[in-house]
Write a structure and sequence with these properties.
There is one protein chain. By secondary structure, this protein is mainly alpha-helical. A two-stranded antiparallel sheet has the order 1-2. The mean pLDDT is about 85. It contains four helices and two strands, in the order ααββαα.
């Protein structure tokens, strides 16, 4: 089992080195910028944040900020955004 652990650690180190090489090769190209944006959007969705797309601009609104709106408006607003997102997916899928 100790040998397996050492092998896995060595493979992880190799993967880290390969990732560094790939990042250096891609550099600050348009591809790397798009990858960075996609990672940010994935993290926002995992965090439950709201993502608004207006034209070519993308805005990320922290879920906690929306929930903190006065008069309890946060939860219905988040529900509205989720419904709009699902409708957008259905429309774009057809």
């Amino acid at each position: 089992m100790e040998g397996d652990a050492a092998r896995i650690l060595a493979e992880l180190e190799n993967l880290d080195r390969e990732l560094i090489l790939i990042d250096e090769q891609v550099g600050e190209s348009a591809i790397s910028e798009e990858i960075r944006r996609l990672r940010e959007r994935i993290k926002a969705r995992e965090d439950g944040d709201v993502i608004l797309r207006l034209g070519s601009r993308v805005y990320r609104i922290d879920r906690d900020i929306i929930k903190a709106l006065p008069f309890g408006l946060g939860n219905p607003l988040i529900a509205y955004f989720r419904i709009a997102e699902k409708l957008e997916k259905k429309v774009s899928a057809t």
